[in-house]
Amino acid sequence: MKQKYSIILLSFLFFTGPVSLSALTIKLGSLAPIGSPWDYNLKKIGAEWGKVSQGQVVLKIYPGGIVGDEDDMIRKIRIGQLDAAGITGVGLSRIFNGVLAIQLPLLVRDEQELEYVLDKIRPYFEKNIEEKGFKVLLWHTAGWAYFFSKKPVVYPEDLKKLKFWVWEGDPDQLEAWKEQNFQPVPLPATEIMTALQSGMAESFTTSPLTAAAYQWFGVAPHMCEMKWAPFIGTVIIATKVWNKIPADQQVKFMEIVLRIGKAMKGEISKADEKAVEIMKQNGLVTHPVNEDIVKQWKSAVDQGFRKLVGKSIEKESYERVKTYIDEYRKAHGK
Fold first, then answer.
1. Does a structural domain hold residue 203?
2. How many domains does the chain have?
3. What is the pTM of this model?
């Protein structure tokens, strides 16, 4: 009887093909607010991955910072509590600090310049990041960071009077701000609202969409119209987890990610513009700047941030970024 059942089981396996006992669940953390374009497109990626893999790869998303700040997410990936994350360039710099070179304040001037430099520097970044055990699935330009504050900020002296939120975890950058007589307050991004409400922080930089989605502008209703720094978005995954996916599916997955990422660029740009209009209707006051004011800002921060090169920012990355910027401006007569 036992032999009979064994024959039946073997026959079933032969005719039905190999059976997977469990799907691969990829746990992905993100600060993206629920319902934002970033969150929507991460879910879209997950749905298409599931379809292509016939349900054998499940992307489980934890949005809105519910699994912690970006530093927390990276740490959890390293110890296996998470597998992937949708993070900003600041978070990615915790893996390879050369990434900060492309995000230095007032270094890259516009979207076209940013795309050129990012396209050139990306292979170098990815090589260094992969050596740390992570694979970058997607790079995208997620808008620009602007100053939001409780009181108007137009000139550097305006910001020096306010307590200014900076990302936690970079003591060199903190010191660079202090050397220029600013008042930086290092905190996780998940604590910005609490800090604003308590008075611990009075100003911060982020994209308009983020300020609107998290309602931070309600406590800091002034926005300086100067493009402070590019807002880089990325999706990363632990290499050891990515390698569990069959090679043919990896190719299809990357095609999905790149297609959705390309479409997302236009969506976020429009969403940022719409966010500013909605915030204006709800009390936001925007403050324009001219070229002379921007020069004052560059003078105020350049000296401090240049000192980070070779410390918080890998020197070769910085030199490459500067070279690519010069190439672009020479080619376009800027």
1. yes
2. 1
3. 0.87
